[in-house]
Predict the structure.
Amino acid sequence: MPRIVAVETLDGLAADDPAAMRSRRDLRRLHRAMGTRSIVSRALKDMTASRRTAAPLRVLELGAGDGRLMLGVARALAPAWPQVELTLLDRQTLIERATIARYGELGWSAVVKVVDVFDWAADATDARLRGRATAHWDLIVANLFLHHFEGAQLTALLTAIAANADQFFVCEPRRAWLALAGSHLVGAIGANAVTREDAVLSVRAGFCRNELTALWPTQGVEWQLQEYSAGLFSHCFRARRLAANG
Ligand SMILES: C[S@@+](CC[C@H](N)C(=O)[O-])C[C@H]1O[C@@H](n2cnc3c(N)ncnc32)[C@H](O)[C@@H]1O
């Protein structure tokens, strides 16, 4: 199935548009159906298992949406994880104060950054070129986000992520016939027209095989990479910085 990236309806709607609000609720239900929380929790637990420092874990989520998926992950991980300083980045203001408070109850400090991801990438690159201090992340995470991009944009984004993080994890739609069939059936869980349309577009723009591995920039650094199918509908990619070459 060729990869086709198209603008999703939700991306063109204002944050407080009733159809958008309903679609974000649908997304939470879809995550439950897809088992996203356990897929992400399992991967992040595994990726940080060998961490030996008591310093807070600095985590950045790109395209965090309403922050609720990551909150579910935080609930699963908080008992075993160290302190976490989490930054939730999205270009829309979607995160409620109550969600931030719930992170606090788990001992995670969460801050919201409302910015376009390409402005974040450009700022980080500019800071490095000028020798200005820039945030370095123990872990960058993204869920249902990378599939919005292709070509030069996707390459630029992966380059910025690789330059600014020790580890990266992403969980995206799997571009496969079963997932495509499933995406045509999301009406069965009561999804609205926006979600029904975007679900199909997301699968067509999703990833498969080793597509993200092939795009990952090494930039003189040795990385451990892993790309795999998860559950029935998801496709995951993990990268861990090992050492600089030369
Ligand atoms: C499909 S939603 C996924 C939200 C969340 N990660 C989840 O899985 O529930 C994609 C999110 O990416 C955000 N987004 C899309 N393009 C973006 C960009 N260029 N910069 C920052 N955020 C963006 C949207 O606002 C939206 O919240």
